[in-house]
């Protein structure tokens, strides 16, 4: 980063734990590199923040998404996502505009999954944006191939749980390993999920960069990685007919994880690799983060 002024990034995070936690860790790493970071999400989330654990130096810019007490059981996923976007667009636009004429305007906007509208707000304000991908890279690969040649294959075989799906460069998968909304029995959930992910893939086509920060819908694919690729755990078996996971099955899986030496060794191996990647002196994650900053904050 050049110049005397500290570079300034606005992070817009979808108000759920799977986006909040990794985006806060990302914010902390940016702060440690000398970047001025503003974190924006729904008021309900920031009300629950522990001030003692919030990143030092982080500027908070909450807005009301219409659910200031959090998502209620009667609120559908469709309504919650829609309200976050409807209220988020003018709120984020106002946050950006408030600094535009000052000595400290935003240099870049970073947004999490389920919030593709934030990229459009950034573009309308002449601001470049980046998608912070809070799921494993394999999930991004699955979404990409679905919208680029594999939609018919997956859709036609969605009722066959053992049907093999072979995507370029990815481990062999079956239908049940795919993100859940691909196979959702709810047409509305299926439609919403696919539209959101299509928006993300379309953004990538027009060269919106992506930062993968490994951590809804991706859990089935992550389970595949845990069992067959990383080999750091086991997957529970559901009871035939109703799909219930019985207590004895959970007990069986916990016992295996706690006692299986290979699983524990693999977990330790991946933990050590993660530590090395995060090392500020040459770790791959640190190197890539600095390259991202050099590229987007020229």
Rg value: 21 Å
- Quick one: how many beta strands? 8
The helix-strand sequence is: EHEHEHEHEHEEHEHHHH
Query: Spans of 5+ residues with little confidence (pLDDT < 50)?
Result: 204-217
Helix proportion range:
40-55%
Strand content: 5-15%
Strand order of the largest sheet: 3-2-1-4-5-8
Structural class: alpha/beta
Q: Which CATH class of the domain at 1-134 is shown?
A: Alpha Beta
The general outline is: globular
- What would CATH call the homologous superfamily of the domain at 1-134? Glycogen Phosphorylase B
Largest sheet: 6 strands, parallel
CATH A-level architecture of the domain at 1-134? 3-Layer(aba) Sandwich
What value does the average pLDDT take?
Answer: 80
Rounded to the nearest angstrom, the distance between the terminal CA atoms is: 6 Å
Number of helices: 10
State the gist of this model.
The protein is of the alpha/beta class. The chain has helices at 17-32, 43-47, 77-100, 117-124, 137-156, 187-205, 219-229, 247-259, 261-278, 284-296, and strands at residues 8-12, 36-40, 59-60, 108-112, 129-133, 164-165, 173-174, 210-212.
